[in-house]
Amino acid sequence: MKKDIKIRKAKEIDIEDIERIHKSCIQKTNAKIYDQKVIGEWIEPINFQNIKKQFESTKWFVLEKDNKIVGFAQIALDDDSIYQINIDTEYQKQGLGVLLYKFLEKEFKKNNTEKINLNSTLNAIDFYKQLGFKEIKPIKLKLKTQEVKMVKMEKLL
To answer: Are 114 and 156 in contact (CB under 8 A)?
Structure first.
């Protein structure tokens, strides 16, 4: 890994950065594909308390570049799933998402995972295909009144 880049387990002190990056990705990257009503409902539950609660049931990692958190990932080893990989919009298209994914794949391999599952946003399908994931079927993530169209994907290890 490049010396100015570090991936580590997320801590509570990192939650504000995780929240900022997640909201920014939805408002800037996903908003290019999804309707504004969907975007509004999507970011609503993203807050400190909600993320902190999810720290209890899933593993979170942050990616630092030059000692600044510029990306994060959330996984669940017990169900072989990647919940999300997000890179700060100012740092996208620099290979950081690939670095973070490769780190996660090692975590899954250490856990003897045979197949990684994820639900991809429509704008991230090509990213995951480049990493070896295959599309399984279209799905919808239900929000309060809106739905986020996504694609279930998987990769055999």
So the answer is: yes
